[in-house]
Design goal:
This protein has about 90 residues and is mainly alpha-helical. It has helices at about 5-15, 15-25, 35-40, 50-85. Helices cover about 70% and strands about 0% of the residues. The chain starts with a helix and ends with a helix.
Length: about 90
């Protein structure tokens, strides 16, 4: 089955997949999942064109989130600077 790498990347990072994997995790210090359990987890393999579109949308949304996060961090840095100036 052909898989678009970025689609698979986003799929494996998603809460739905992570929740399913956690059910099968064994161990405390370095939890792992047996391959036989991993194979039980369903993967929604779509036509390549749909995988590419989903990956594009996720990439676009992540870029927006990262840009917003950067602006929030800049604002926090400015507030901390103002706080330091007020204290001194």
């Amino acid at each position: 089955i052909p898989v678009q790498p970025k689609y698979l990347f986003h799929l494996l990072r998603g809460n739905s997949f992570v929740t399913r994997v956690v059910k099968y995790m064994k161990g405390d210090n370095s939890p792992s999942v047996k391959i036989s359990d991993f194979k039980k987890i369903p993967f929604p393999f779509l036509p390549m064109s749909e995988q590419e579109e989903i990956a594009r949308i996720f990439d676009e949304q992540l870029a927006r989130i990262e840009a917003a996060d950067s602006k929030v961090q800049e604002a926090l840095d400015q507030l901390n600077l103002l706080k330091e100036q007020l204290v001194s």
